[in-house]
Amino acid sequence: MVHETETADPCVATGAHQHHLVLDRVLNGTAEKIWKAWMTPEILAQWFCPRPWTITDAVIEPEVGGRFAFVMHGPNGEVMPNDGVFLLAEPNRRWITTDAFVKGWLPAGLPFMSAEVALTPLPDGRTRYVATARHWNEATMKQHEAMGFHDGWGTVADQLNALLPTL
Q1: DSSP 115
Q2: E strands, the chain, where?
Q3: pTM: predicted TM-score of the whole model, two decimal places
Q4: CA dihedral sign, ordered 12, 16, 22, 27
Q5: Collapsed DSSP state (helix, strand, coil) of residue 126
Q6: Can you tell me the distance from the alpha carbon of 50 to that of 157, in angstroms, rounded to the nearest whole number?
Q7: Which of 4, 80, 147, 160 has its CA 20 to 30 Å from the CA of residue 23?
Q8: Which residue has the higher pLDDT, 14 or 71?
Q9: 35-62 pLDDT tens trace
């Protein structure tokens, strides 16, 4: 039963919104290989940033509340630590991370986004790869878009796709 103060749309009731950016690709590898590429720090370091950027110090604990952290390094000496947690980890299918918390469920300052990757195996052995960045507000989403979300995440997906046959 819906009360006067309730609404049938949970997004309206909670203030949830659709400030998200999406990358949807078909990759030339199985969901298992993509999971491995994401969840193995040494492999993640090979493809995760658009070159010439790199990452180091990856910590990946694919379980709810487990840490997802790394340090990005730019070609001009930029250093960008990234630390967050897994909100969901379904091996070979889907995972969600956020920078809103660090391990131990401690608030992490101003959150930027949550990121979801969903994998759908295709009959030909390839995998539909949908990466979604969800932001807390429109301004943050537009900031991410202006930072080059589509080119950056697309380049990273291309780098992952090129690596998959070697795994």
Answers
A1: E
A2: 20-27, 54-60, 67-73, 79-90, 94-98, 101-102, 106-107, 113-121, 127-135
A3: 0.89
A4: negative
A5: coil
A6: 9
A7: 80
A8: 71
A9: 999 999 999 999 999 999 999 999 999 9
